[in-house]
Amino acid sequence: MFTSMSPDAPRKATFADWVEGARLRTLPAALAPVILGTAAAYNLGGFSFTRAFLALLVALGLQVGVNYANDYSDGIRGTDSERVGPLRLTGAGLAKPKTVLLVALACFSFASLAGLILLALSGDWWLIICGLCAVIAAWFYTGGKRPYGYLGLGEVMVIVFFGFLATQGTLWTQAHRAPMWSWLAALSVGLLSAALLMVNNIRDIKTDTLSGKLTLAVRLGDKQARSAYALMILGAYALGVICALGAGSANLNWLGLLIFLPAIFGAFWLIPPVTVRRKTGPELILVLKHTGLYTLVFSLLLGAAIVAGA
Q: Are the beta carbons of 298 and 304 closer than 8 angstroms?
């Protein structure tokens, strides 16, 4: 005898749900620093496809891992119970918390393995300390008793790990050099990653405030958080201009500057919906997607400008 499932029974997560849980909109934050670090390595005569590919695997593994770890940690805390944004596996009851946690740990393990192979090829074993710090930071963004994401430090840590560490780590394992202009490139992409996080948190100010998640957007308030988003986008562009111009092997890189200058149109595209039209709730999901797309285009243009200066 067969019994039918109650229409009120919770469904289980599908493959599409797991893909949504990986939050593909955030992946440009992983791709961009690897693109810039590799472009800088080419500029300095140290390009290695194999090492660049391994750095990409590390960055993607960490990014997807932190997304699932956030899903798990926020879900078991109840932070996602009234979520406006994209689907969450744990908070929506689509997957067991333990399963989501295991997937997050699997992603971190994959990133760690790729990182160990990268360090073995480059010989930069001292960078293992940075790798361990990256994994720890990925977990404690929303994990642990006092996650720093709940204290308003998320954007700072994103700049450190998805800006400086990811860009310069990619560069160093290929070229073993890090000129000043490469630090500007790293900071520029770090600011864009912080902008991604900021616009995501602007969308969730009301629900995060109720749940006690004191993100930087909550601490600043809606108006100032929107201004901070605009400053991050414009600051990244200004740094990109300086980097593109300074990445010449001998003289100022005017060709690279011309290649990068059109990136300003992306800033004009992104900022008005947030600061002028003041989009809210689900409308900001599209802004989040566009910010991710701009981060990728920005890195490709700046990367091309850096290569042109070789």
A: no
Each residue of 20-70: pLDDT tens digit? Answer: 888 888 899 999 999 999 999 999 999 999 999 999 999 999 999 999 999
Residue type, 137: A
The Cα-based distances of 239 to 26, 163, 205 in angstroms read: 22, 13, 29
Distances (CA, A) of 196 to 145, 159, 168, 254, 296: 25, 11, 20, 30, 12
Number of Cβ within 10 Å of residue 198's Cβ equals 29
Return d(Cα 73, Cα 144) in angstroms, integer. Answer: 8
Closest of 189, 273, 272, 286 to residue 237, by C-alpha: 189
Helix spans in the chain (H): 15-21, 28-43, 49-77, 97-122, 128-140, 154-159, 166-175, 180-203, 205-211, 216-220, 222-246, 254-260, 264-275, 283-308
One-letter amino acid at 273 equals P
| Of 68, 62, 69, the residue nearest 34 (C-alpha) | 62
Q: Which amino acid is at 221?
A: G
Q: Rounded distance, CA 149 to CA 156, Å?
A: 10
Domain limits, the chain: 15-308
- What residues contact residue 154 under an 8 Å CB cut-off, 6+ apart? 141, 148, 197, 201, 215, 216
Percent of the chain exceeding pLDDT 70 equals: 94
Name the amino acid, one letter, at 237.
Y
Tens of pLDDT, residues 165-189: 999 999 999 999 999 999 999 999 9
pTM score: 0.91
23: left (phi over 0), alpha (psi -120 to 50) or beta: left
Q: What pLDDT was estimated at residue 10?
A: 61
- A 10 A CB-CB count for 140 gives 17
Helix axis angle for 283-308 and 28-43, nearest 10°, is 10
